[in-house]
Specification:
Number of helices: 14
Number of domains: 1
Distance between the termini: 148 Å
Largest sheet: 2 strands, antiparallel
Order of helices and strands: HHHHEHHHHHHHHEHH
């Protein structure tokens, strides 16, 4: 009886004792790590951001306006890699370049080309083809020799290729890519890139040649004012103002090609050989004599961006001018193309459009005549 009473008590005691042992074991295991955990919690608390201030001498979410303003202005830091330009985190002029290129340059350039085509179409509809009023005489006179024609066609053909490939760079992805697809467009653009790069030197040579061949005959004179006043006789039949070998309209085109050609060649060289030429800083310094206040301390990246924009603007202006020149020298005027085709023009055509030059040739005094 006593044994049976003691057995349940022993079992309860064993249960309580086992539970106490387990609790002691847990305490014994966790006790050494408690200080460490407390210490880690203190460290974490110490390293936590306080009012936006992050330990470690960094800014955190506390903005330093001057610091970020300097970065936005293009402040350059130091880097350990060879490319020193990598030290500039933000180049704000890149945003300006993209906005101008994809905005005014692209939009106004398209309107300029479409505008000149529309004006030519309107002119042709109203005036028609300008005919030789006296009719062809059947007699010809040499207008340009082989050297002159060669120089002209070197300049003309290279410019046409440069214009088409350049327009593809500016407008191709919007016009041709949806039509041709990626593969064909990529192949055409790559071929156009190489053609543009290498034929640019032919264009430069052509510009130099025509300058030395014709500059003496393209000096503006008083008679050019009269030619311009009557529109060169282009707008009214039977009106033929006197002109030398080159009339005022041709002189304007000559100087547009020379000045524009030199300018576009220089900017093209800057693009062909990146970060080697700095044309705009010095140019702005000269222009600032007139109080323009243009920036002169330009980085090479800024020079490249300005070169690209200027290259595109001048190219689009020249393209618009040359479209008009091509029209009047081919479809627009009877007998004009032969001047650069065979070099021989009809005598009546020459008398109507270059009467003073015909007189010089006939008198044999062309070489002795002063600059026009």
């Amino acid at each position: 009886m006593i044994a049976s009473v003691l057995r349940p008590r022993r079992s309860a005691f064993s249960l309580i004792f086992g539970f106490l042992l387990l609790l002691a074991a847990v305490v014994a295991v966790t006790a050494p790590t408690a200080p460490a955990r407390a210490q880690g919690a203190d460290t974490t608390a110490a390293e936590s951001p306080t009012a936006g201030n992050v330990p470690g001498n960094v800014l955190g979410n506390t903005a330093d306006s001057e610091f970020w303003r300097a970065i936005r202005r293009g402040e350059t830091g130091s880097v350990t890699i060879p490319n020193a330009q990598a030290g500039q985190l933000i180049q704000s002029e890149g945003d300006n370049w993209r906005a101008v290129r994809n905005g005014p340059v692209t939009v106004y350039g398209a309107w300029a080309m479409l505008g000149i085509v529309a004006l030519i179409a309107l002119f042709f509809a109203v005036r028609g083809r300008i005919r030789i009023d006296a009719g062809p005489s059947g007699t010809t006179i040499e207008r340009f020799n082989m050297i002159e024609r060669t120089a002209h066609w070197i300049t003309a053909t290279s410019f046409i290729v440069l214009a088409l490939t350049g327009l593809n760079i500016l407008y191709g992805r919007h016009v041709l890519l949806p039509i041709l697809g990626l593969d064909i467009f990529a192949a055409i653009t790559l071929a156009g890139k190489y053609a543009h790069n290498f034929l640019s030197f032919a264009f430069m040579v052509g510009v130099v040649l025509i300058f030395f061949l014709w500059v003496g005959r393209n000096i503006p004179g008083k008679r050019d004012l009269h030619w311009l006043a009557v529109g060169g006789g282009l707008f009214k039949k039977g009106v033929h103002p006197p002109a030398g070998k080159f009339n005022a309209g041709q002189k304007l085109i000559f100087w547009a090609v020379i000045l524009g050609g030199v300018s576009i060649s220089l900017s093209g060289l800057a693009l062909l050989f990146p970060f080697q030429f700095a044309f705009f800083g010095g140019t702005f310094e000269v222009l600032n004599i007139f109080g323009l206040g243009l920036p002169t301390d330009l980085t090479m990246m800024q020079e490249m961006q300005l070169s690209q924009l200027w290259h595109g603007v001048v190219a689009l202006i020249l393209i618009a001018i040359i479209i008009g020149h091509i029209y009047i020298g081919s479809l627009g005027m009877e007998g004009a193309f032969e001047a650069m085709g065979s070099g021989q023009v009809d005598l009546n055509w020459a008398k109507e459009h270059h009467s003073l030059w015909v007189q010089e040739v006939r008198s044999g005094s062309e070489a002795q005549q002063p600059a026009e």
